[in-house]
């Protein structure tokens, strides 16, 4: 450096530095000791050379303390000679140099992390804001990977994006970025087991044939655009949803009381005797039993839950019934009348609060079947009697709750990968039987609608321009969404691609719909309901056996720049999912029945959920206003952490309910019915009708109306007779 500085810099005007490689490390615990160990780890790996060059010409104090006499010492003259001999900070970061420390002890018990942005920030703060040139950055793929290297491409995207954030957000002076490496080669102790090049090298050809990989094309595009300019389709949309749009919140279940609160404890108490607000139980005394009918207002949990729902500002609430608890014996002629009464009260109170109940009959979970005990112990959904039993259970719910409930979900998320094709076949029959029960026996008098809700996360090709990846993405959607959707909303049979793929494998066979079942299932819907939470990428090239699905021959992966919590947050995936429904099933009404993100329940200022709800609702608006999707409603998931841990708009500390920041933000979106254009005239919507209980009674039929009219006339006549008789009596005296 001194040679160049003295003899060549005056006429060449160049720069000289030393490239230093480093990992990044984060504390294993939130303790000061862990932070010190992280600092010491970076001092041993990067500070070893960086501190003499950029700070004081000497080794870090931590190295001196830990290594003692094993560490050479600088003379004062050497310090002066070394200090400041770098014109910029040249940093290497990647798979071999920084992320796989050969000497594991250099981690000092902390956690190694692949975070280039944090490393750049640390260098900036530790060494007095030097110009930083990322000299070597990249990842690797397995040695059998050829020209399509999605893993390398998305890691490259991540590192470049982190560099850009470091410049724009953190103010770090990063002056350049260099991808490693130009072409595949011999990777030291990994030999030819991995490939790190932008160009594929065929080592088996005499001339070492080279071909550009997908990562090379991607890198060239980034360079041409000088980064990641915002795409027009990713800009937030402005506009509003229709006036009759269903704004909702979902919960897997509700809190149930087995008895009204004030009837549960017969004891007598004295209150506030010592002005301390305490209750003192009177020994030997109890209140007599109350011989009156239970009222809905007696249930404290009903009042509390309905009030929480009302405060969100929604006009719909979606929850699931408990089949196994409602009909524990499996015999619908002997239901749990207490629980049925509670559900009746709950839905009634929702209506009084101007909230429409949306009720699921059976909610699929992996932990338990949710079926009544007799069915649970006899082959569950493989039992041919289960669909008929489900239809009878549905009939009971329609009859007992249909006065309050006008939107029904038969099965919630039955299209789970753990469900066999034979089980799925019986579930389809169960749904169709339940739909026809409502259509035939209840629709005319109750006027409601029925469908099922499918789990539909989006699946995107890792290379959208490659037919070899578009086909696997289509295949995954056929197997996980079309599996249930096509028989009901489409042809009455499973997707053709699904059948042909399984036939080609000669392994699993799909059940066959006979003509009767085909007619039963096809068209058994009133709307398309989906649960959507996230998105994923798929490619045909096998890279990681843990995320490879052999039966479908697809490699699952994520874009490493996506926000994770713990699933990827990908707002545009919802818009693509909604468009898939439109493309396959035309103008079918669509409801997003559950959409939410998991976040630390202790984080009441849940900024991730605020971002998530804003972004996903905005993508739903694009699907409605720009793409013409017949979107009828959106339901945030979930109401509270107590029933759905980590997903709630409400948190809880001990017995105290906490309103999270996301609730206020979601309510604001609802109040504006979307994202109105600033300065535009407010949307004119008719006022919501207030509940009219008398009207609902009269609507039961002309006989009830006639009897009500006659009764009213009799009361008026009696009143007049009593009035005139009293008047004449006074005049007489």
Automatic annotation (TrEMBL):
SUPFAM superfamilies: (Trans)glycosidases
Transmembrane segments: 703-725
UniProt-listed InterPro entries: GH, Glyco_hydro_1
One GO-annotated biological process of the protein: carbohydrate metabolic process
Pfam families per record: Glyco_hydro_1
Keywords: Glycosidase, Hydrolase, Membrane, Transmembrane, Transmembrane helix
Keyword Hydrolase: yes
Recorded GO MF terms: beta-glucosidase activity
UniProt KW Magnesium keyword: no
Family: Belongs to the glycosyl hydrolase 1 family.
Protein's name according to its UniProt entry: Klotho
Organism annotation: Nothobranchius furzeri (Turquoise killifish)
Phylogenetic classification of the source organism: Eukaryota, Metazoa, Chordata, Craniata, Vertebrata
Gene symbol of the encoding locus: KL
